[in-house]
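Please check our next protein.
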Amino acid sequence: MAVTILTSDSEATPSSARAEGASLWVRSDELQASTGWELKPEGMCRGEICVPLPADRAASVVVERDGATWVDVAGFAGYIKQTSAHDEVTGTWYFGPGPEEHRGQFQLLDAPDFELPDLDGRKHRLSDYRGKKVLLALWASW
């Protein structure tokens, strides 16, 4: 079955991709075109950001098989705490924004914009209060 990989900015169907349970193995020569990540001696890299792979982690996400280097994309996503999901029926795998895509947002300490109604039902967006002090009181029943 063909595997489709969806990311926040691309869709790919690498010919080498093989799903094995919770693992998604992609040959290293198709990795960058499929996910944006590239296997280098310093670790897994995307643009200027490289994530070192300690020996124990590298042994579980990078293997030599059939004369090629294979990377467990799902295993790596778990290692960097990247959101992922897959549908076994359709062979579709989704990998959400990685830590490098959130880096600027966290450096600025900007909360994501959202909209909520007040007690009278009027909608308020957090961005409407930019530059002002805001106190958010949250409660949940669970």
